[in-house]
Amino acid sequence: MLGKIARAGIALLYDRRHRREAALALRAIERQTAMTLPRKIRLQAKEYAIEILGSKAFAPWLFLYSAVAGEFRAGWIPDNFYGRVVCPNINGAFRAISGVKTLTKRLFQSDRIPDTAYIINGRFFDSYMRPIRMDDAARVMFLHSDEVVVKTDGSGRGLKIQILSRRNFEPAALAASTPQAVIQTRIRQHPIFDALAPQGSATLRLTTVREPNSLCRVRAAYLRIPWGDHEFVLSSASMRIAVNPASGALADTGYLSDWTKVTSHPISKVGFGGMLIPGYSDAVKLVENLHGMVPQVGCIGWDLILDPSSKAWILEWNAGHNDVKFSEAVAGPCFLGL
Fold this sequence. Notes:
Layout: H1 2-33, H2 39-53, H3 59-69, H4 79-90, H5 94-97, H6 104-108, E1 115-120, E2 123-126, H7 137-141, E3 147-152, E4 161-165, H8 171-177, E5 180-185, E6 203-210, E7 216-226, E8 238-243, E9 250-256, E10 261-262, H9 280-291, E11 299-306, E12 312-318, H10 325-331
Antiparallel strand pairs: 1-2, 1-5, 3-4, 3-5, 6-7, 6-11, 7-8, 8-9, 9-10, 11-12
Helix pairs in contact: 1-3, 2-3, 3-10
């Protein structure tokens, strides 16, 4: 009984946080369009949330999706429904496992994951999980590049990431401050993205699902571009542009973190509509094959970077609560038939 009450309380707080986030986004959209969401559409969304999804708590994200699309569409998945209901059922224990970044290459055994070393319990290991001496760490870490990216286990949303160069590397200090971390060779982005992310790295988010026939397929895609002075994509400071999942072409309209619509980069003024992601089909094949190695997982969000030769590299995978709200709003419903 107490457990049931506790779960209900946690769900209430979770939905309340999502309601605030969705309401802020909806107000931003309504300010830009100078229009409020019609009452008829609100009623459609609320009725769908109650009768199909089981609670009016799932309506706020449906309001936002409707405002972006200009209509209500049955089949949308509200972000809090995805996080609270869908993920626990289709991803199970892998929700937590995907946050252990030091296990990613060990799990997928792919040469497209740029892990070069790990710090586990304050000790250095190479990419094969073999212990290495402190005074040998630099040679292993900087084998392929003079810069590496360090990410702590459990980090996300672009937080707890640092860039280290060979000349400023102090192994003892790093091990003491970051006892659990993956160290990745820094991959340079394809030059086609330089005008959109001149100081940072544009990343491609692909969402794969396990279909009813057990095959894994990409269902949603978008490009994420760091905003301002940030080198990495932060959830709170980025631009997102929908990508056609079939062709790899960018949409004509993108959105800033506050859901402000843009048709070109706000600083460089470079347009992106119709731009093709280099090496897109290779990236799709890569993530679909890797998802097939963990058929226990129903849905995965993959973050990739395309290098100057158009080769796709896996930076992270997320089976915890990968973002579906952006793709659902601008291109959804993306998950019909599942």
